[in-house]
Amino acid sequence: MQTAGQQLTLCIIKPNKVNYSEPFVEAHIQRLPGNKKVVYGGFFPLFRHDGSFLIRNKLKLALYLIQKRILGQKSIPVRDKAFASYLKEEKIDIVLAEYGPAGALVTEACREAGVPLVIHYHGFDAHDREVLAEYGELYRESYDYAAAVVGVSEDMCKALEDLGCPPEKVVYNPYGVDLGLFYPVNVSASPINFLSVARFAEKKAPHLTIRAFAKVRKKYPEARLIMAGIGPLWKQSKSLAAELGLEGAIDFAGVLSHEEVYELMKTSRAFVQHSVTAAGGDSEGTPNSILEAAAAGLPAVSTRHAGIKEAVLHEKTGFLVEEQDVEGMAAYLLKLAGDASLAAALGANARLHMEENYSFDHRIGRLWNIICRSSEAGENAWP
């Protein structure tokens, strides 16, 4: 990992104080070097790193909340001044804004404080049409000031350029995976268990995974599908499983820790995820769960969607189908169900792919290099 800039004071804007589905943000907080100050409480932070309000004057805080929550204003000078003052007081060298809207909203404060800004996009913030309609103009203004704008897939980087970000400021850096937490498992001895770890949300399309698995179950009645996670489509997914007669074949495991997920990987034949572009345009970045499964030596059956196309190499580390292709997904699941040796060979390639391209040391090191370079050169950091 890069060691230059070790003494940098880095402010990370984390919209959600706690969110199990954002392991990539936690990885930045835990693994990036430097002196880190994490602020949170929305795309524009409400709380300082010590948990106190960013705006300390009660009257000004009340005014800010009225302007934000009642009037729906995006440009609020009182909060810009408060954050600019915070950056100066804490002697912040550079700001890392997690998500595009966060970067857009803090641009003016960073400019006022003379602090460089790196904006890290993650998925919906580069694709969801409602988000783009709400923040599009602010995005373009933020691109003028930002030192670097990070995308986690090639599709996302292209989308950022289409949104108006100068190509020379767009930097590709996918997520990484903890290779020390996910060791290769013995796929060749696995039962016919398929594992899915994802939010039950539209872009994850859990219903399509269930329908594909239903076709596997017809040929292999001993096959099981374990679906870890929670979300708005959880109840609907359980109802679909019941409708298809799969109650005993699908385990809706809920939210699990990394350790619990790894235990499930030890008895899995393959990982499965049918990611799609949602009706409103929402899209993946690079799903962490696919990287973790690959690190554990599991092949993946997934879709040609966003960063999955780079994380899963078709017919080398797993299989890819077009979005909505339930028949194609079922065919590849059936292929792996009937050939544990093939699954093991693909899984070994998947682990090697992670070691060579997606290790935390590599990816966090790359992000730290982006941050250091941006802190030194500001708006002129790239190319």
From TrEMBL:
Residues 80-179 form the Glycosyltransferase subfamily 4-like N-terminal domain. Keywords: Transferase. The keyword Transferase applies. Residues 193-351 form the Glycosyl transferase family domain. It holds the Pfam family Glycos_transf_1. The keyword Transferase applies. GO terms for molecular function: glycosyltransferase activity. This is Glycosyltransferase involved in cell wall biosynthesis.
